[in-house]
Amino acid sequence: MNLPQPSPPSRGPSFYEATARQRVNRLLDAQSFTEFLPPQGAHSSPHLALLGLPGALDDGVVIGSGTLGGKPVLIIAQEGQFLGGAVGEMHGAKIVGLLQRAVRDKPLAVLFLVDSGGVRLHEANAGLIALSEIMRAVLDTRAAGIPVFALIGGVCGAFGGMGIVSRLCSAILMSEQGRLALSGPEVIETVAGVEEFDSRDRALVWRVTGGKHRYLMGDCLALVEDDVEDFRQTTLALLAHWEETAPELHTLRAEQERLSQRCTQFCGLRDGLEVWAALGVPNPQQIPLLERDALVTLRQGLSL
Amino acid sequence: MDQLTFQFPAQPCKPSAKASLCGVVSSGNLEVLITQGAQPNGCEVSIHTSAQGFAPIWQAVLADFAAHHALGGTAITINDMGATPAVVTLRLGQAFRDYCGGAQ
Amino acid sequence: MPTSPPPPTWDTRRQRRQARLQRATQAGIGRHVEAARIKTLLETVIAPGDRVCMEGNNQKQADFLAQALSECDPQQLHHLHLVQSVLALPSHVDLFERGIASRLDFSFSGPQGGRLARLVQDRRIEIGAIHTYLELFGRYFVDLTPDVCLITAQSADAAGNLYTGPNTEDTPLIVEATAFKSGIVIAQVNERVEHLPRVDVPGDWVDYVVVAPRPNHIEPLFTRDPAQITEIQILMAMMAIKGIYAEYGITRLNHGIGFDTAAIELLLPTYATALGLKGKICTHWALNPHPTLIPAIESGFVQSVHSFGSEVGMDAYIAARSDVFFTGADGSMRSNRAFSQTAGLYACDLFIGSTLQIDLAGNSSTATLGRITGFGGAPNMGSDPHGRRHASPAWLKAGREAAGPQTIRGRKLVVQCVETFREHMTPVFVEQLDAWKLQESLGMALPPIMIYGDDVTHLVTEEGIANLLLCRTPEEREQAIRGVAGFTPVGLARDQAQVDQLRARGVIRRVEDLGIDPRLATRDLLAARSVKDLVRWSGGLYTPPSRFRNW
């Protein structure tokens, strides 16, 4: 194996480490962000207080408008550090409202910075209803011709209902640190046992849910560096030529067919390493250490 | 959860922003929101904290901060999940700097 | 006629050893032992009342032999006296619960501390003493020499020569004490090979070798994920670098294993370099191969590192940096706990580490109620060796600060770096250490204090640095400690006028007194913010265990 030369890591502001507010401010054009329902109005969860838990003033999600490359966009950013970015009633209502506003105001795009383990269990059905409303609102927005991009690279990834929401978006941009799946690793281990999935084996978790795996599988459109600026540049580049097409029956059927085939093709494989080998990746063990550009080149060489 | 409120006398401040928010409500961390308050020579603080029984320490930390910063005319809202006094002071400093635009 | 006394015999230990080896031969056991017959061997060559050392270092463990001994018949083996540096495995404690062992001399028990305390309360175990590593190693050669030792190595050849791999740790020392006092040496190895990469223990010092069914367990104790370093730890690291390392010109040092010191390591390529300190501080280390030291090594800060043990995932990196680490002709590292502890005690000018409690005299301890854990090596390195005779600028400066320009000896710098509150708002600064209550409840001869207050020279907290060398009375010392104890009850009870005066004299220095901008104390200042960053710095040579990865 060719080892990379020792080198200091890139020093851009890390998307993974940033808070939702920092991500928004650094992603959009400088000084362009206007927050809707800002924290001084206090829109925190009524449920958490009943449970004796301190809420967050924004209920864990930042929404608003701004510009990207001079063009108007709407933006949603979940705060993964607050209760795992989980979706509660107020949190969900803010997202749905923002998406409905997109249908009305017709911005260039909606940027959805997903960082969430899914539904907020404290709020039970209210959270579940909120998630289903978000799914519908994403599809409504796309049907109105406005692209919704999911940007995944935070501490919580995109799991549960937010994993579904992400896949309903027009495109997904992920960093290697990002994770995308339905059931989270701990959930799988709890339900099916540690033999089925060892959630503490972090390298395994990333090999089956992480950004590199999702990119090799074609589940995300772009693999970006863990750097807010790279998320910004990649989003700009994609939007420059983007034509939003509303999902149609025949494309959905084709996608369903593709996923069924994938299910058969990889049935029984238990690790990203095995899947990558089946994809024809030479020397799959090298994948976790590859830098982004090298991985992108490698994927272009695969007949996917 | 404890809900606490305090009031401190303080020199008036010259805000350069309507509000500033720093930090996140997560384990060992807190969010601090500074907005305009009612008293030009005083600062009102309202706290929700998951850690119970630490009112005297909050009082001491905030009084020390108020003694060293011109907080007059501000209202501070805090949501806390067990942050240590060092982290509280750090976040207060960051939020106050943003509120005053760097002039302290 | 008076009968003359029988002539004295001077080789009873050797005769006893021969008899035991012979019994094993009669049982059909030769030098190379099948794993299935290991219990028979142990029951044959160990006798009731023996002093036994099971190699339990703080990293690698002779886990197969420990398990086998714990399953032996208590009718045959009982009243064993364990003499070993670390009591880390459940099987170690099982020996006492099953009545096989009854007495213990040790240094550190870590995760077994709670079970150990219960056994003491139930009077099922007698503790000789909780030593520092060097004391226990010393006593191996004085009055606690093992009769039998159960050790572990990477591989053995047909002649019984052993290769330990980079985790040499305590093995050579234990074998030396046992083999040269007519004891019996039993080694578990991961594999038998034809040719060893190098010989760490000669075969004629080893009596029995068994290939264990599973490789020996090695715990990655020294890996700190940079992602978990807080802004407060970064601020304290800046204070330590600017207010202590730079001012005393610390070149030879040892670090503790906490996140506070990991932060210092990760600020060397950034903050310390910006202060122009490269080549002036932190050049020579007694330190395990901390992954967080990689950026400083790659930046050219570090000239030499000698290690107590290795660290999981660091072997390839160490082998590729033989100018820095101690490596054999085969390329792999040889560590040695005894030598590195000696280096930490005598050859270093500074020790810095963290703790759980500090009292008004500066005594510190990690002991908590209901647990007997010991301290391993920290008390050796965190003490001022009065026997030291060589001078260095740092050592002289500290000595003169303490006792004036005419002093005839210097001082080692012993620094405790703590945030004033730990998690769950537990104050670090206390009126009385839990160690005293622990001593009382368990009837110990000494309170389990990790570092004695009179050895501590500096305290670093988020509130500033207290230089205890400059305190002239116990009262001043107490106020200097209170003066950096923040909003803990100890800190709130300070005499503000006296603290102000200490600050005016430079005994206490705040962040602003040190010329440090607290706004710089962000995670952007870390040379690596994640384990992946450390891998990048190493050029892919560092291969961290899975639990530390998010890729």
Could you name the key traits of this structure?
heterotrimer; A: 304 residues; alpha/beta; 2-enoyl-CoA Hydratase, Chain A, domain 1; seven-stranded mixed β-sheet; 12 helices; 7 strands; globular; B: 104 residues; alpha+beta; Ribosomal Protein S5, domain 2; five-stranded mixed β-sheet; 2 helices; 5 strands; 29% helix
Summarize the structure.
Chain A is an alpha/beta fold and 304 residues long. Chain A has twelve helices and seven strands.
Describe the structure.
The complex is a heterotrimer of chains A (304), B (104) and C (551). Chain A has a domain of 188 residues: 2-enoyl-CoA Hydratase, Chain A, domain 1. Chain A contains twelve helices and seven strands. Chain A has a seven-stranded mixed sheet with strand order 1-2-3-4-5-6-7, with helices on both faces. Chain A is α/β, with parallel strands linked by helices and 304 residues long. Chain B is α+β, with helices and mostly antiparallel strands. Chain B has two helices and five strands. A five-stranded mixed sheet of chain B has the order 1-4-5-3-2, with helices on one face. The longest helix of chain C is centred in the middle third of the chain and has 18 residues. The model of chain C has no long low-confidence stretch (mean pLDDT 95). Chain C folds into three domains: 184 residues, Glutaconate Coenzyme A-transferase (3-Layer(aba) Sandwich); 148 residues, no CATH class; 161 residues, Glutaconate Coenzyme A-transferase (3-Layer(aba) Sandwich), CATH 3.40.1080. In chain C, strands 1, 2, 3, 4, 5, 6, 7, 8 and 9 form a nine-stranded mixed sheet that branches. Chain C starts with 11 loop residues before the first helix and ends in a 14-residue tail after the last helix. Chain C is globular and about 85 Å long. Classes of the chains: A alpha/beta (304), B alpha+beta (104), C alpha/beta (551). Chains in contact: A-B, A-C, B-C. Chains A and B meet through loops of A and β3 and β5 of B.
